[in-house]
Protein 1
Amino acid sequence: MARMVQCKKLNKEAEGMDRPPYPGDVGKEIYLHISKEAWQLWIKQQTILINEYRLSAIDPKAQTMLMQEMKKFLFSDAEYLMPGAYTPE
């Protein structure tokens, strides 16, 4: 039976992840409160940010920016960053 969570992003009960997708306390918080579906939405958003802003995953500034945007995207009602030049498919 799948583990269910009350997803903070989707505001509904949904299937949770099998393990924390991120290290540390942030990963634990995501594991406890974010569904697989919401995590996949973040992965798509993260890919857009990396591509549009040409971010390097090994750049500490890019890592910090992505962490901040991930927290906003998953846990708050605050506006998250959407590249100005980006147009959805």
Protein 2
Amino acid sequence: MGKSGGVRRCSRTSCNERAVAILSYNYGDQVAQLSPIQGLVEPHTYDLCSRHSQSLKVPVGWKIIINEIADQPLASNEDFAEIAKAVRGVLEEDVEADSSESNLQPELRRRGHLRAL
């Protein structure tokens, strides 16, 4: 498995749309499977945009398994960066508050929906 580098694009030639699905083939069972896009790039799979995943055709006699696919990917690297930034902000505030106290037992802090130990 490889890492995903930024926004993944459709594997179809001359298509530059954002990928929302992964197409994989099982040649032995004659099955094509379309799944939601994952964070890691799997070898021997194809990333497809919404348009190409909806118009997918398989060879005659093959079965196709389609898992529920959203029109937009669930999260991107930018989304995770924003979450990490928010968590760091909560942790920094907690460190400043605790620097005046010497507390051996970590206390659960809460800010909105974020929690930090």
